[in-house]
């Protein structure tokens, strides 16, 4: 799953009130701006995840392209009935990102509840080759870390995402619409 264009969702939900939006989109979102660098997926017989050193990073991998059409989003929801988790990776997971620096099963999003019965989302690195980072801090493999709206997630050295709960994403879209009006 490569993601859907953010501009399409903005157009589809332009007149929606918050309750209607949350009724249709109950799960979190990840926003991805297409970076100008990427890592090719190794061919058959080669190492499956490209381990990268700082010197091997794509030269423009930290910059974001400015074209609005390149901004995509992913819906973070379980695709299997028997779980409350979502596996993100290069292949075989619930949410697929095609980049050679991403492990086949890179990280896992999990839904839980706090003592007030509020939803809590966490992210766990699945011992990925190039690491998982939240707000610049590398996660220890196997240790879940709670996510908050607008947390910056980096999978390996190239893939950058922004996390939003459904409510946080609606608020983000509302703000985005106000500043983008002609």
User: Outline, from the CA principal axes?
Assistant: globular
- Uncertain regions spanning at least 5 consecutive residues: 52-69
Give the CATH topology: Tumour Suppressor Smad4
Overall pLDDT: 80
Arrangement of strands in the largest sheet: 1-3-2-12-11-8-9
- Please state the structural category: alpha+beta
CATH class: Mainly Beta
Tally of strands:
12
Structure description:
- With 182 residues, this protein is an alpha+beta fold.
- It has a single domain (4-37, 70-180), classed as Tumour Suppressor Smad4 (Sandwich).
- Helices cover 16% and strands 27% of the residues.
- The chain has 3 helices and 12 strands, in the order βααβββββββββββα.
- It has helices spanning 6-12, 18-24, 166-180; strands at residues 4-5, 29-33, 71-75, 85-89, 95-96, 107-113, 119-125, 132-134, 137-138, 145-146, 152-155, 159-164.
- The strands form 2 sheets. The chain has a 7-stranded antiparallel β-sheet with strand order 1-3-2-12-11-8-9.
- Strand 11 and strand 12 (159-164) form a beta hairpin.
- The protein is globular and about 45 Å long.
